[in-house]
Amino acid sequence: MGILSKITAGVAGLAVMGLGGYAVAFIPSPLLSDVAPLTTAIAPEAVTRSIVCSGDVVGYVGGSADISAVGSATRLSTPGVDSQDLAMTDSTNGSVITLTGDSLLIAATEYDAVQTESVAGYLATECGDALNEQWLVGGSTLTGRDTILTISNGSDVEARIDIDLWGSQGLIDAPGSRGIVVAPRSQRSYSVAGFAPDEPSPALRITSSGAAVWATLQTTAVRGLVPGGLDRNGPVATPATSLAFPILRIPGDDTIGAALVDPGYNDIVAAIRFLAPGEIDANASITLEPAGEGESLVITASIGAGATLDIPLSDLEAGDWSVTIESDQPLVAAVRVGYHDSQNGITDVAWASAAPAQTGIAALFVPDAAVLGVSNPGTNDVTVTILSGGETAEVVIPARGTRVLPVTAGLVTVASTTDVSTAVFVATRDGIATLRGLTAPIDAANIVIVSG
């Protein structure tokens, strides 16, 4: 089956165009009507901001080092956004999307539904601003599982990349993972199995000298001859002692139970993967909060320094949940949830990277109807302004709490004057995915001067 990757750009309320691809949306300027006296917001003139998308879904690699796209890419854009293809050293097809002017006015999502003999599932991932250091958690390189690292350089400067890898037994000695050159306006993809074969729980750090880059992990699964499970997740900038996953959906036994009869499907059970990359063991408190009625659960865990740890969440009841983690040592983590539809035989998986706590306008383009989670890590209630379906609403997020709300396909923004974390969970008949709302980098956003 061919896959169309599309970039669709437009103003708030633009309908999603096509089944699969990229979606780019413009974000309305910050509302200044409630700015307190003696406060001045200065918008830099002609700021150029670029965000990077990883491109096509790639096929099952297996024991081969060859990486090829499942289908070709088609791109559509409206005036005002410059979209440029990245040169390829393999068969991926990413792009850099540039906007000159108000740097807050751009967000992008890539998405696809795939059904081939080797790849099946649904993928949706936010495109993002390049980083010089980033961390990726997810996937597996066991038999039948592929984890593909894609590194995209959207700048005019060469990037020299070092990849550090950890697994369930600790730091991995990975020949060929140092000094990788990614040329300007190009990208490279690697099977993580080439660096860490037969590893059930990889985690990676990507460090770039020279140009900043954008990196993602694509994961696929084939059980025997049956494909089932596709996702791509983005990076976090640094380990942290507070992590948030504002919205995840735990399936019920009535849907996923039929698949779990087969031990080969145990990697669609909900789980959290941790890495404490320092030299000191981490003690973490994990709070699991249901979106509706029900009691919160708190789990404590000791995470050994320098090795990944997967903690299953198999006892959670079906429904929407938020996950927050507090640790005495910096961590990186990701949460995995599964999906199975016994009627159409589709199995899928979604890996969620931690959603950063941010102030400002967090934006994302939702490819299908979804639920939005907004988490407040602070000790005071926070009022945020949410835009969805062209309408805005003010919502109070309780201290140390999360609100979960339905949102429509299209542009979604969450504006806050205090740190909050934002994500959506997308569920379709083809599978599931998570997306994070990200703010513009601090050097691209408005400068606020407060006097008095």
- Overall number of domains: 1
Number of helices: 1
The fraction of residues assigned to DSSP E strands is over 45%
Q: How far from one another are the termini?
A: 63 Å
In terms of quaternary structure, the protein is single chain
| Mean pLDDT, all residues | 85
Report the uncertain regions.
1-19, 29-37, 71-79
Taking all Cα atoms into account, the compactness measure Rg is: 21 Å
Total beta strands = 33
Please supply descriptive tags for the structure shown above:
mainly beta, about 450 residues, globular, seven-stranded antiparallel sheet, disordered N terminus, about 0% helix
Structure description:
The protein has 452 residues and is mainly beta. It has one domain (7-447). 2% of the residues lie in helices and 54% in strands. Strands 19, 20, 21, 22, 23, 24 and 25 form a 7-stranded antiparallel β-sheet that branches. Strands 26, 27, 28, 29, 30, 31 and 32 form a 7-stranded antiparallel β-sheet that branches. A 5-stranded mixed β-sheet has the order 6-15-11-17-18, with no helix packed on it. Strand 24 and strand 25 form a beta hairpin. The relative contact order is 0.16. The model is unreliable at 1-19, 29-37 and 71-79 (pLDDT under 50).
